[in-house]
Amino acid sequence: MTGETDFDLLVDRRAALALAEVFSQMNVKRFVVAPFHEYPGVEDYVCCDPATGKLIHLHIHYQLTVGEKHLNGYRLPWEEMVLSTRLLDSRYDIYVADPHIELVLLVTRAALKLRARDLFLGMLRRTYFQHKVLREFAWLARRIDRGRLLDVARRLVGPRAADILLDMLDAPPAKRRLLAFRRRCEPKLRSYRAYSAWGARVRRWVREARTLWWWVENRYYRVPKNSSRTCPQGGVMIAVVGDDAAGKSTIASAIAQWLAEEVAVVPVTAVKRVPPRAWRARSLGKIVIVDGWPATEACPPDVIVKLRRASDVGRRRRSDKPAEQLRYPPSTRVVDLDANQPVERVLFEAKHAIWESI
């Protein structure tokens, strides 16, 4: 709820249109991920907190798609039960999952993620779970009733797996227990597979290779993060212009860092000509941040962020339109910002103007 991590929301698929309407009114924007990162029944939305300018990533789930990293090749048909047993959180006034069902789901997800390489690497640790997952497991374990958990687990994964899950409450789940849990689930978890065994393996290898290539490419071009979310309406070319004394390089770098937390960004430093890779990135739905804008560039950017000093601000007030707007077509949005303000205020105004333009 603090926005430090992704916000996962399970939604009845019949409410998809109503949810899209609510998001539209709140200026929450939908993004799409690269084909090697997408999963069926999952949508990505990003919103900008109007008070702080922080970006918050919303994962909207219409079905419970879980499984191995880079694949999520299982669909658990438990959505109706999760939604029908939801509880109202009095602190945040929002519905959350029943902790008993959430604990079963957490352990099932962990069991489905197990692969041969995970078993080998797990030999170096006392428990397969990572620290944050262990913390979540312990948080849920403090909120459950053993009798209720046993009843829920029997309905979802069968009596034999439910007994193993109950034993896990006394000690952190080890690899052998997770494997035993997976083997004893009824119906067998393999019946929930979205792909055949070989189909899943090939898809996972391809996605891992594409992810590695994405990481190498971003490292080469010094992209701040590794997000693959792009704009479904097409990319956006943003140019930050102004004198060096106005701090355009600082603002351009800060904007790139801010956006790269959640969406695919390509930063370009001041050059005599915008490189072809920047235009290609825009065509692929990415957001391109250009530090400066060459006067000889034939194609205009989508957004111009103009940083003006005191003398420029006074001259702009005596004119009906900024000079930049006269140089570019109406489709180019020109945002005039007073560079005499503190950097934090300039960046805050730039963030909101850019978010409205995406």
How would you portray this structure in words?
With 358 residues, this protein is α/β, with parallel strands linked by helices. The chain is built from 14 helices and 13 strands. The protein folds into 2 domains: 7-197, no CATH class; 221-357, P-loop containing nucleotide triphosphate hydrolases (Rossmann fold). Strands 10-11-9-12-13 form a 5-stranded parallel beta sheet, with helices on both faces. It has a 4-stranded mixed beta sheet with strand order 1-4-3-2, with no helix packed on it. Helix 11 (276-283) links the parallel strand 10 (265-268) and strand 11. It starts with 6 loop residues before the first strand and ends with a helix.
Structural class category: alpha/beta
**Strand proportion:** 15-25%
Oligomer: single chain
Helix-strand pattern = EHEEEEEHEEHHHHHHHEHEHEEHHEH
Beta strand count: 13
- Uncertain ranges: none
Query: What is the terminal separation in angstroms?
Result: 25 Å
What spatial form do the alpha-carbon principal axes imply?
A: elongated
- Individual helix count: 14
Rg computed from alpha carbons, rounded to a whole number of angstroms: 25 Å
The domain tally reads 2
The profile of the biggest β sheet is: 5 strands, parallel
Average per-residue pLDDT, rounded, comes to 86
Strands side by side in the biggest sheet: 10-11-9-12-13
Which percent bin holds the helix content?
A: 40-55%
